[in-house]
Amino acid sequence: MILLNTTFIIADPILDIFIDWARRIYLPSIEAEGCFHDTLMAKVMAVVEPGTTSIAIQTRCQTLEQATAWHDNTAAALKDDLSRRFNGQALFFTTYMEVLS
Question: Does domain 2-98 have CATH number 3.30.70.100?
Answer without folding.
Answer: yes
